[in-house]
Amino acid sequence: MPIDKATVTLPGITQPVDLYTLDQPDGLRARILTLGGAVMTLEVPDGDGAPVDVVLGFDEPAGYLDNRPFLGALIGRYGNRIARGELPVDDRVFRLAKNDGDNHLHGGPGGFHTVHWQVTAASDGVEPRLALRHLSSDGEEGYPGTVEVDAVYTLTRERALRVEYAARTDRPTVVNLTQHSYFNLAGHGAGSILDHQLRLCASRFLPIDPHGIPTGGPRSVRGTPFDFLAAAPIGARIAADDEQLRHGAGYDHCFAVDGWDGSLQTIAEVLEPASGRRMVMRSTEPGVQLYVGNHLGGIAGKRGARYAARTGFCLEAQRFPDSPNRPEFPSARLAPGETYHQTTEYVFPT
User: Which of 175, 243, 323, 325 reaches 20 to 30 Å from 286, CA-CA?
Assistant: First the structure.
């Protein structure tokens, strides 16, 4: 059975944009836009069954035309930063679009967060799903190779939003996809997330320079403000006198997942103490970028909300930043005949 669909026409855009609503029988609901593959809303029932929208976003699809904070969007071809926009692949260096100072960020200004994704399947039921596809042409934002990308959203019986990715290429390239929802488990307009308690299954993180580029390999979190091995409020140490916090204007760092072997494993847990709402993140990826909305700056969001700094947090499953220039990092290279796979789940236990 098809799921609910609405079609809108946006000013200056010839291609209509579709908005799909996925409903899980227990009350979990997601509204997903074909523009950028963005999750516009994610409603999670509270203890009384009342829905609470836990992702930041815009009321109308038109808000996603200039989505520079990447609210809710699918990110590619390469999530996170590539230094100087220089992409080495085999014996060539490709020049990528620069949109973060001298660096390339989240696929560039015309990355996957800006494209109109094609719907290849949409089905209702106990686990409603929406399958999206984008054909990224050779040279798009400077990347080599034509890449076919599939992204499938599913609301599972475990009360999870699952995102599954697959990609294939016709020439060697890099692929590193992620999902960029900003969460606030008290509700999208509830204010600061600094009291959310976070646990990360990561005993190492990647130090960065002032431009967000890793300066070397992973470093132990022990004895630093980056130690979330035991659950702690996100804001407990965010104001510490620490060079890495200054470089990121807070937390904007990739953590190396402990025991990574490519299987689906728990990498983060978050608790909002006032409501008791929890989120468990599972992924197949070796890294997770923790970003706490340091640069949101008062964006006009849904239902009159203003998204100030640190009113939403992102947990972005990915390969490490700048890995094409760091051969010691897990590789993001994709060659013809290979298929890139990734699965990430955001689970909301009862």
Answer: 243
Decide if 247 is catalytic.
Answer: no
Q: What are phi and psi of 323, to 5 degrees?
A: -65, -30
CB 177 within 8 A of CB 107: no
Query: Averaged over 47-68, what is the pLDDT?
Result: 93
Whether pLDDT at 223 is above 90: yes
* Structural domains of the chain ordered from first start: 4-347 (2.70.98.10)
Which candidate, 55, 9, 51, places its Cα nearest to that of 32?
Answer: 55
Residue of 106, 134, 180, 247 marked active site: 180
* pLDDT computed for residue 99 by the predictor: 97
CA dihedral (314, 315, 319, 322) in degrees, to 10, reads 30
- Contact between 25 and 32 under an 8 Å Cβ cutoff? The reply is no
Name 51's bridge partners: 45
Residue 100 DSSP label: B
Q: In which band, very low, low, confident or very high, does the pLDDT at 163 lie, cut at 50, 70 and 90?
A: very high
**Cβ distance 340 to 166 under 8 Å?**
yes
Annotation says 295 is catalytic: no
What pLDDT band is residue 261 in, cutting at 50, 70 and 90? very high
pLDDT for 343 = 98
- Three-state DSSP class for 244? helix
* Number of C-beta neighbours around residue 12 at 10 A: 6
List Cβ<8 Å contacts ≥24 apart for 213-222.
Answer: 213/81, 213/83, 213/103, 213/321, 213/322, 214/254, 214/320, 214/321, 214/322, 214/326, 217/328, 218/256, 221/255
Q: Give the per-residue pLDDT at 15.
A: 87
Among 86, 140, 269, 316, the one annotated catalytic: 316
